[in-house]
Specification:
The protein is of the alpha/beta class. Helix content is about 50%, strand content about 15%. The protein has 18 helices and 14 strands. The protein has a six-stranded mixed β-sheet with strand order 5-6-4-3-7-8, with helices on one face. The protein is globular, with a radius of gyration of 26 Å. It is a multi-pass membrane protein.
Length: about 475
């Protein structure tokens, strides 16, 4: 690890960051795999009526040993440590490798050992592992980030707008594991200055000195320098890993791959939501998860409906027209969290409180909202359980589990026509990237950026990642009010 001190001096404070990162992930993966095996064995025992043959716990010994080989697959997939991988890509690789390793485990036992491993235990263990392995890895990364041993030092070449955007993104997304030290830039006016809280450490010619000091990753964020200059920089940089940021800000960034067109570098962009099979897959996922979620939610919805009726006269449910796919208006259901005269209360409150009015115009939410019912209203809004009735909209095909949230008309009117057309190209969602990333703390600009990112970068893995993050955000109540 490299630390920047005053006047750009560098001091090596720890070189074992990669070791501790790999060790932490390895331990988390092995714990998740062995826990999945035990849970699989326990689940089979609970369902003993369907599986008459008994499986003693001692019979799991050889399977438990075989699970120790799984990290080899994770290593070959580039997941140890996996610095620089997006969270969605990490989940995709983790799930795919885990599934393939379980298949290999079953095939190996069937072809060579014939030990009679319980297929029921293995099937249950696979199901648990597909959830627990990515979950334990994410928790391990969070711990490693907090301990300061996750990530590698990164230099950003170019301190202009693109470089500043890269620095801001890397500082915000600590789980990426790319820790920006500072900038190199040839502009004399920038020398000794700070950009996004990071120092400009010198001109580009000092890149070799930084490489000798232990920096192995550089981000080249100078899209405006011209093709010849860019090619010369790439050729001469001494870093083993160079990440090139092209002049394509705002375009799709996931599921983009390089192509060699007869010696010409090209980028292939997969527009996943334009493919019919992907739309069918997304709908199938809505029903596969939406039906059991809806059934489990019915008792919860009933209890809160009774509480609402006890606190405030009037209907327990609130229905509002929102804009859906293709601009068609849909009726969105929610548990009522506000007084029946909510709009009149809001109007009076904003007239009497200029600061609250400014907050409303920026976020369309208030931290101290006079419309919210005492007790039940605050609980429902903080946990987002007031949205549960929208599972009915999902099953009707008017919404998806994941997508841009359906906003009221007054909210949509604040967005550009281009962004509104983009939103209308997909089903609105029960949850979305904005909700799990910024939630109530994100203003209109953040909402537009995150919804645009979701639509342009959609994949089943992104939906599964957002659903997993939704449960975490609801539990921690981050950004909710």
């Amino acid at each position: 690890m490299v630390r920047v001190e005053a006047q750009g001096r560098v001091k090596v404070v720890h070189r074992g960051g990669v070791f501790w990162a790999v060790l932490g992930l390895l331990v988390a993966d092995l714990l998740a795999l062995e826990a999945s095996l035990l849970l699989g064995w326990g689940s089979r025992g609970v369902l003993s009526a369907l599986f008459p043959a008994k499986v003693p716990l001692a019979a799991l010994g050889s399977v438990a040993l075989a699970l120790l080989c799984f990290p080899v697959g994770y290593f070959l997939a580039g997941l140890y440590p996996g610095f620089g991988l997006a969270p969605v890509e990490r989940v995709r690789r983790k799930v795919q490798v885990t599934f393939l390793m379980f298949l290999a485990l079953v095939a190996w036992e069937w072809l060579f050992f014939r030990e009679g491993w319980s297929r029921g235990v293995l099937a249950f263990a696979l199901g648990y592992a597909l959830v627990l392995v990515p979950l334990f890895a994410a928790l391990a990364r969070e711990v490693l980030v907090r301990l300061g041993v996750w990530g590698v030092p990164v230099l950003i070449l170019g301190a202009a707008r693109t470089g500043a955007l890269v620095a801001r993104s890397l500082k915000r997304e600590k789980a990426l594991g790319l820790k920006p030290l500072g900038f190199l830039d040839d502009d004399p006016a920038k020398q000794g200055q700070e950009v996004e809280g990071l120092p400009v450490l010198g001109p580009l010619e000092e890149a070799s000195a930084w490489a000798r000091r232990g920096v192995r990753v550089a981000v080249l964020a100078m899209p405006g320098v011209g093709r010849e200059r860019l090619a010369a920089l790439l050729e001469g940089l001494p870093f083993p890993q160079v990440i090139l940021v092209p002049d394509l800000l705002g375009l799709q960034s996931l599921w983009v791959s390089s192509r060699d067109l007869g010696g010409v570098l090209a980028l292939e962009v997969k527009k996943n939501l334009l493919l019919r099979r992907n739309r069918f897959l997304k709908r199938a996922l809505d029903y596969l998860l939406g039906v059991p979620l809806f059934l489990f939610s019915l008792p919860v919805i009933g209890l809160f409906a009774l509480w609402i009726k006890r606190v405030s006269p009037g209907p327990a449910f609130y229905v509002q027209e929102r804009e859906g796919l293709g601009g068609r208006m849909i009726r969105v259901w929610k548990l009522r969290t506000m007084y029946p005269d909510a709009e009149a209360r809001l109007e009076r409150y904003l007239e009497e409180n200029p600061e609250a009015k400014a907050e409303w115009e920026r976020f369309f939410k208030l931290k101290n909202d006079p419309r919210v019912l005492p007790g039940v209203g605050h609980i429902l809004r903080r946990t987002s359980l007031d949205e549960l009735p929208q599972l009915f909209n999902v099953l009707k095909g008017e919404m998806s589990l994941v997508g841009p949230r359906p906003f009221p008309r007054y909210h949509l009117e604040k967005f550009s026509p281009e962004f509104r057309r983009l939103r209308q190209s997909v089903l609105p969602g029960l949850t979305g990237l904005w909700q799990v990333s910024a939630r109530s703390e994100g203003d209109l600009e953040v909402q537009e950026a995150l919804d645009t990112y979701y639509i342009r970068n959609w994949s089943p893995w992104l939906d599964l990642y957002i659903l997993a993050r939704t449960f975490w955000v609801v539990l921690t109540r981050k950004g909710a009010y």
